[in-house]
Amino acid sequence: MSWKSRSYTLYNKENEIAGKTGVYLKRRSTGILNPTFEPELTDFVIDATYGGRQQSQNSTRGYNVDDHKVSLETIFQRYESHPIEGLSAEGVRKNHAKFGPNVLFPPKKTSEIIKFVKNCLLGLNLLFWICGILSLVVYVVQYLTVEEEDRDDDNLYSGISLLVVVLVAGCFSYYQEFKSSKIMESFKTMMPANAIVWREGRRVEVDVNAIVVGDIVEIKYGDRVPADIRLIQCEGLKVDNSSLTGESEPQKRTVLYSDKNPMETSNLVFFSTSVVEGSGKGIVYRVGDGTFMGRNKFQVSIHDTKDISDPRYLLVMKGAPERVVDMSTAAVVTGPRLAEMEPHELDDLLINHEEIVFARTSPEQKYLIVKAFQRTGNVVAVTGFFAYFVVLGYHGWLPDRLLFIQTEWDSAAIQDLTDSYGQEWTYTARQKVGVAAQTAFFVALVAMQWVNAIACKTRRLSIFQKKMKNNAMNAALIGSPLIAFFFMHTPGLNDGVSLTPLCWQVYAAIVPFLLLTFVYDELRRWAVRVFRTGWVAQELYV
User: Fold this and answer.
1) 8 A C-beta contact, residue 95 and residue 87
2) Where would you find the membrane-spanning parts of this chain (predicted)?
3) Res 458: pLDDT
4) Residue 473: CB partners within 8 Å, gap ≥ 6?
């Protein structure tokens, strides 16, 4: 199997065909950059303009305008306006019908009930619903046909547990979607209520939603720009573009064309930006969804900082995918992609990447990953027998006695199976100690994940230096053991999830491993701080 990387070159056909301009993507091969990435992209037109007038109505495409390049005479003719008189009443009506209102239209809304039902029923949740309902049906059949002493309540507990899990997961998913849907509403707060425009030679104040393309608009210090505007007059004008471009410093604006990129030229101001100094007047050339903010709203995502005192910068990159991927040290490999890889390709992947995420893999593929790690000289730990041995040994079943007795252990016909000390165990008693062993493994897993979360919180500083400032993480560290204990000690519920209370000796056996993990990682971080370069830093800085 050969890996290919593709890059894309932008070219303009304006010089080839007079009167017709367009920006297209053309594919070309650049050789192997990163063997973990193979974009499945095809040639397509981003946007096209004919005779300088935009033809595309797709709001998700690029912001391609030429209103900053053409002369003022051309732009006034284009929108049938006048630099002093402004638009006539007929011009306002025509431009409103032609270019639309100055309103950001949200995407078509789906009923909240339908959203909730989709989150609870569709996808993997549908499988959980089927399993839960089938478990309840089996229990009802047993209840009607089996004697009470022979009746098994496991199906009842399993069915209820599955339905509760799917409902909780569905509610959480719906809540996340509900929060995301509020992003669009936040744009309403960025729109000014009124604006000053010139119409039919008169200076009037109108509702911002009533502004149309071609209006002559006045802006001054303290105003929010009500639409995308080409400046025709200004005095010491500066605007804050941080909401659009991230530029922290106010940007000076003039009536002069300075750059072919509309976002860089000095003679344009954009909807939702703030005037921080001076005043100006200009002609509106884009309104509503046609503005730069209107296009940008389709690509919005919000990332909250967990620690507001964190002084670090977040680096965000965009551009040609293969260029970005080539700079990345982490790789994401999905199950379907892994199935297509040869063993030597997987080995090469493990050797050449410091961080790898395997997503949506099958159990068989997990075994292949383990074997690949072993082939490349790594030590792989995938066992969890110790917790079982502690519980079973506490009850009289030493490891040597447990070998090759699985069939006898699971047989309900054998009621006198002997342990390492000659004690006889019934089938029911064996099942109870088996549940205790499973519970011990579950508790050990929760405990180790708990200490691993603390160990992974910082890469170089000691946890005593960094301290525990992430409140969400602190809540999770407190909540996870409490949830585990709740399921273990709640009568009826623990039977449903096959958990049981444990004796203190089992907890005591887990503590040394927690301490060893914590102490080892503190020592690792200490070594990284002391030996900042060389072999030690290379091996221990993870």
Assistant:
1) yes
2) 121-144, 156-175, 376-397, 433-451, 472-492, 504-523
3) 84
4) 453, 457
